[in-house]
Amino acid sequence: MQSETENPFNKWFRPLPFGILLGLLVFASFPQVLLGLQTFVVRDFGFFTYPLAHFQRECFWHGEIPFWNPYNYCGVPFLAQWNTMPLYPPSLIYLTLPLEWSLSFFCLLHLWFAGLGMFFLARRWTGNNFAAAFAGTVFAFNGFTLNLIMWPSHLATFAWMPWVVLAVELAWRDGGRKIILAALTGAMQMLAGGPEIIFFTWILLLALWIQQFVKLESPRRKMLWRFPIIVALVIALTAIQLLPFLDLVAHSQRSTGYIDTRWSLPLRGWVNFLVPMAFGGTWDMGVFYQYAQEWTSSYYLGIGALWLALLALWVGRDSVESKTKIRLLIAIAFVAFIFALGENTFIYPALRKIIPQLRLITHSIKFLAIVIFIAPLLAAFAIAQMQKLQDKQKLAFRKRFAAAGTILLALIVVILFWAWRFSFPTDDVHRTLLNGISRAFFLIATGAILFSLLRDSKPGLLRLAPLLLIIVAWLDVFTHEPTQNPTAPPSIYEPGLSRTKLALQPQPALGGSRAMITPKAFYTSLGFASSRLQDNYLVNRLAGMANCNLLDDVPKTDGFLSLCPREADDVNTLLYNSTNADFPRLEDFMGVSQISDPKKIYEWQARKTFLPLVTAGQKPYFFDDFSALHALSQSNFYGGKLVILPEDATNVVTVTSQTAAKILDSKFGNQTVDIEAEAQEPSLVVVAQTWYHDWRAYVDGKPATLLRADYAFQAVQIPAGRHRIRLTYEDRSFQIGAAISIPAWLACLTCLLLFKMRR
């Protein structure tokens, strides 16, 4: 085999040519999106991602920091959600450019950036451009990464993962300016906002640091302080985002015994690494999903990448330099795979009891992110070792290579027999068989290319074998399922569309009234399907599903966000815990003026008994939280005449009965409420907006106590007379974080400048 210096592809796969090749593959995968003819729409991209980006963009152009979203859950923190990316600098792409094109471009740019980062990491670890190019292609184009397109925050965080690993490892080895660069790189990943992937990144780095510290691969004394310094700098640089997030977590539905056991990797899930369309069905806008697992539509690596990754088990024995790192990566990948099985084994549930904080990681299948990160690196080690083989080693390697390929082919045959003989009632067995046969074809094609790479002479077209291997790997993933990211015309996201189409009377508006999806309509929408993708989305948009209401500035009682204040989540659970739930008194208090038709989800029914969002003069009752929540569901609850307050509010509230008071005016903003009220005696003013501890109340410009009313809402006591009340959202965690992060950024950038001047 030719040496690395003789092989022309080690020149052709340098960073710039590979970056161009990767860009061409991205364009070939999504030309209609990059040209602005279509936009992503399926699942969370249309129902979660795009509406939140629209809201953030509106705040940006009005000169506001999006601390609070007043349109969902009767109000909910926005910036503290973290996965909304309010402080991630590249978000300026979709905040400043036309959103219907730029948000999709933002995702594809990070897809390209992910592959490029893996290229540089694999090149450093293997010293081989071709191996690095293969790893970069596989990391960008696999079922798992492509599924992340629907969540820009997760995709951006995953894209930064190889860059962070590369930068931090260089920093603890070399020190100097690389420490600052590593901290800035880690901060960018943190601000992108995928908490689980950030956690996985630093756990992997910790394992690598311990290994190198023990093996004396780097200077121990310097390693001992460099890595902690990097971690501290990253925390300081991102405190402005991290502190509000941690504060919200502490006050959210996930703070007390929260466990989401949905969507663990099935025990049979290993088969989908080989036959991606086994044991599942095509639904939810035409996308394929496994049974009992709907978080990711695929985690298929490509049969060639899997084959080469398995070869790393043997390669590690031949390469002294890489042996320990390969063994560590394999061990970490194995543990992550076991954890991904979640509730299907006893291991992860037992660990979660020991470390309760792990309950914050929803959907155990997310642990596959570690496997998907490691597998391309293992494949790169295998390719690099292939190019170093001496003549006497080639025969042994060919035997290992052929044995692994034969095992994979045999497993595909076994899986197809399994899927045919023991199929589920809703299986499309014919489609599964074709899918498995096509993977076998790619396995054989990959084998032929790899065997050609093991030849000493490469005449004619065989010199193109490395490029062919990359193209085949891309084609394998590109064809392994129906498209994971179907597209539709950008017009489906036209702002104000539902207001124009529905013309509701009265029209829900900020500070006026809200819309509410009935429990029956909600569950009906989950089963709605249309042969035309855009019709499917538009019907659900007109029904106000998930966060689509943000596109039309329509406030509603529910929403679709990762974190919600605990009390607001409890009320939402009360409303939606059953399709037969009916709480008209509570709906009146929440200002519900429109409610969806249970049968025709895109039609709405007007409600005439709804109350204004700001009322006054209620008689207070003092209950504990359990009794207060129960009282909201009772028919004798009437928010216009009574208000339920916590028992400890008796020390603050002097009002004892219903009083003569009225609201003269009220005006709601994104994070302010201005009220003018008049009372003949001390009275309570109740606001049907989510209570959260960062809200502050001022009466005539003086601080006042903001009470938690009716379990999850707001109230303030005013003295007799005419008064101006102002409620404002003041995120103290953000302020403290800004006081830490801004000096940290200035210090890091100054240090980089000084290093440059010194050089």
How is the secondary structure organized here?
Layout: H1 9-12, H2 15-29, H3 31-34, E1 39-40, H4 44-61, E2 68-69, E3 76-77, H5 92-96, H6 99-126, H7 129-140, H8 143-147, H9 152-174, H10 177-192, H11 195-215, H12 220-250, E4 280-283, E5 287-290, H13 303-318, H14 320-340, H15 347-354, H16 368-386, H17 391-421, H18 429-453, H19 465-478, E6 487-488, H20 497-502, E7 514-516, H21 519-526, H22 533-542, H23 566-576, H24 584-589, E8 592-596, E9 604-606, E10 614-616, E11 619-623, H25 625-632, E12 642-646, E13 661-668, E14 672-679, E15 683-687, E16 695-699, E17 702-704, E18 707-709, E19 713-718, E20 721-729, H26 732-758
Parallel strand pairs: 7-8, 11-12
Antiparallel strand pairs: 1-6, 2-3, 4-5, 8-9, 10-15, 13-14, 14-20, 15-19, 16-17, 16-20, 18-19
| Quaternary structure classification | single chain
Count the beta strands.
20
Q: What's the overall average pLDDT, rounded?
A: 91
Helical fraction: 40-55%
The low-pLDDT segments are: 1-6
Shape, please?
Answer: globular
Largest sheet: spatial strand order: 13-14-20-16-17
The rounded distance between the terminal residues' Cα atoms is 41 Å
SS content category: alpha+beta
Q: What can be said about the biggest beta sheet?
A: 5 strands, antiparallel
Number of domains: 3
Number of helices: 26
